[in-house]
Amino acid sequence: MLSLLRTLWEVCKHTLVKADTVQYPEQKPALSPRYRGRIVLTRDPDGEERCVACNLCAAACPVDCIALQKAEDESGRWYPAFFRINFSRCIMCGFCEEACPTYAIQLTPDFEMCEYDRQNMVYEKEHLLIDGTGKHHDYNFYRVAGMSIAGKDKGQAENEAPPVDVKTLLP
Amino acid sequence: MIDTGIGSPAAIFGILLSAITVSALLIWVERKLLAVWQDRIGPNRVGPFGLLQVAADMIKMFFKEDWIPPFADKPVFVLAPVIVFATMLSGFAVIPFAPDVGVVDLNFGLLYFLALSSLSVYSMILAGYASNNKYAILGGLRAAAQTISYEVFMGISVMGVVMLSGSFNLRQIVEAQRDGWFIAPQFLGFCVFLVAAIAESRRAPLDLPEAEQELVAGFHTEYSGMKFGMFFVGEYLGVTLSSALIVTLFFGGWLGPWLPPLLWFCLKTGICIAFFILVRGSLPRPRYDQLMAFGWKILLPAALFNLLATGAIALTVARI
């Protein structure tokens, strides 16, 4: 019985509490940088595409909304020949971002993606790719990974020792 | 000069119109107050402060398809929403708004109100029966049992007020509160009456006849369009009527300093309606057996004790 009165009083106290909601179209809600909204593909600090077309994001995607195809350029770097996200299926779960080994695919604090035509919800690589580095400014996959590409051999990456020559007996 | 005395056409028309307008506006008031208490903003788009939301809702309801299910008992189905609307509206006849404002001055006004509030349950029962739908009939059954149970304590709880004022006439009850509102000597009676009034108007948390989580929409599951609207406005009419009666019986009706009597009455009724909405916004709905147990095991003894104690004190005082 007393708990009921207490509840009444607690609710009544909210008369003077400011509203948590905002007048949406005129007033935008404050979204955190980690908000899971529209997906983008970022570039590394050198301005190259970060995506190495490893397909992990597509494998992690629970609704199978990511489609891509691997291609390889003359320096040996992998890149996606096409990269397509169907946002009419995407549930903004962020699994692709977690799966990505190169910080290429990232979710952004933007959710205003309404379209009248369903086909317009399918974003191609040119729509997804942005010029910036997203949330990780200094990360460059090829500078820290052991992959050998043109101009950088194995063992030349940061924090990496030259590979052990297994053919020799000397320590 | 238009005659605005008790029972004049102008007074009847004015009261009828303002009762319906206030009840319709309560749709907006309730949404806004609930929003405030839930830290939201609430309707504010249609018109100033969203006040025209009521008009928008009305237009929507009028233009909705007025569908009668083929399996329904058609005449009863149509009649049911009219009953709640009519009984609640005619309940306003005895409400003493101010010394010279009112529809009739019945010397059994309180009994008249009790009779009408029990009649309104026919609306729910008939709606539940006529819908020919298991959820609706369950809602109707609940409404019947709930109203019959709470009617008992409602009647007994106001008898203390009747004893103290010595009259069933609501105007004389108000006049008898010149020396002090009946809320103080009749606090127990007030508590019982308040719970019973919430149960009678079938408002959350005692809205078991329409409990959405269990019964779809209870007795008005099959209703749409303006027929549903009549149930809807009938509920708000019930809230307004119950609030007006609580103010009349326990808070001194139109009595109050400085302000004109009519304004006092409206102010007190408004606060009471806001309290009804606060109760809806904060308390959870009890289970059906809890509702019945609470009624018969707590409210009935409380009301009877209040009756006996008031009678004993009144007799003692009269003897001295």
Give a short synopsis of this structure:
Chain A has 171 residues and is of the alpha+beta class.
Can you put this structure into words, describing what you see?
The complex is a heterodimer of chains A (171) and B (320). Chain A has 5 helices and 5 strands, in the order H-E-H-E-E-H-E-E-H-H. In chain A, strands 2-3-5 form a 3-stranded antiparallel beta sheet. Chain A has a two-stranded antiparallel ribbon with strand order 1-4. Chain A is 18% helix and 14% strand. Chain A is an alpha+beta fold. In chain A, strand 2 and strand 3 form a beta hairpin. The relative contact order of chain A is 0.18. The model of chain A has no long low-confidence stretch (mean pLDDT 87). Chain B is mainly α and 320 residues long. The termini of chain B are far apart. Helix content of chain B is 68%, strand content 0%. The longest helix of chain B is centred in the middle third of the chain and has 32 residues.
Low-confidence stretches of chain B: none
Q: What count of helical segments of chain A does DSSP give? A: 5
Largest binding interface between chains = A-B, 14 and 12 residues
- Calculate the terminal CA-CA distance of chain A, rounded to whole Å: 81 Å
Query: Based on helices, strands and strand pairing, what is the structural class of chain B?
Result: mainly alpha
Question: How would you classify the helix and strand content of chain A by structural class?
Answer: alpha+beta
Sequence of strands across the biggest β-sheet of chain A: 2-3-5
Strand content of chain B: under 5%
What is the number of beta strands of chain A? 5
> Uncertain spans of chain A, ≥5 residues at pLDDT below 50?
none
| Order of SSEs of chain A | HEHEEHEEHH
The backbone outline of chain A, from C-alpha atoms, is elongated
Mean pLDDT of chain B: 84
The multimeric state of the shown protein is heterodimer
| Helix fraction of chain B by DSSP (H/I, runs of at least 4) | 55-70%
Cα-atom radius of gyration of chain B: 20 Å
